Amino acid sequence: MEAAMSIDFTAGWSLVETEPRPYLRPGNSLLLTGHVAIVKHGFVQSHRGTKRRMALSRTNQTRDAPFTVDPQVRIGHVHLKVADLERALKFYSGVLGLGVTQRLGDGAAFLSAGGYHHHIGLNTWESHGGSSPPIGTTGLYHTAILYPSRAALADAFRRVLAAGIPLDGAADHGVSESIYLRDPDGNGVELYWDKPQQQWPRTRGGALAMFTHQLDLKDLVSEASSGVRLSSGPRDL
């Protein structure tokens, strides 16, 4: 059998040299001994004699499907530039309770929940003593920290109040309940929990229909555990 040879022909088509077998192949490929045949949608458009045995088959008969990422993909961590590492640690570890998993001197630290290597990275490599980005510039809008339950969010909210950290806002989005604040460097932070999916608002067609309604903060904080206190700050490694 002769080796196959592919030759570019016209858009959507290719010319392929192959062994002589006169039959219609699946996928709209026609092979005629001593002919070149142009085949489209299963019909012979034209053919003319030639010394070679060739088949003309359509390529890319169907458009490529849009790429969809693996459903197990997650946003792994956020790495922030901060002006003062100790000050940032007092917020992310001291107030929010994230554990320090590793620290690189005075330049960087990594924090997580549940023993993961890190969910939050902090560094001063390019930003020591720096100022917050001014309004009107691009960049991070906020880091969103997901809590497993409404009670866990309430505990975090109570600690934020005890630390005297002002809120930027609070909202019921239908799919979640959120409180918004800023870290010491002015970076936006969202603390939220997801409602069960069967409670998520949807249109008649099944699409998500998120909204922004007022969140009852007194009701939220009432779910906090008793005895929620501030720690003195993060423990260095």
The string of secondary-structure elements, in order, is EEEEEEEEHEEEEHEEEH
- Helix fraction bin: 10-25%
The termini sit apart by 69 Å
Q: Kindly report the name of the CATH homologous superfamily of the largest domain.
A: 2,3-Dihydroxybiphenyl 1,2-Dioxygenase, domain 1
Overall SS class: mainly beta
In the CATH scheme, the class of the largest domain would be Alpha Beta
Q: Using DSSP, what is the number of strands?
A: 15
Strand order of the largest sheet: 1-2-7-4-3
Work out the radius of gyration: 31 Å
Q: How many helical stretches?
A: 3
Short description:
The chain is mainly beta. It contains three helices and 15 strands. The strands form four sheets. A five-stranded antiparallel beta sheet has the order 1-2-7-4-3, with no helix packed on it.
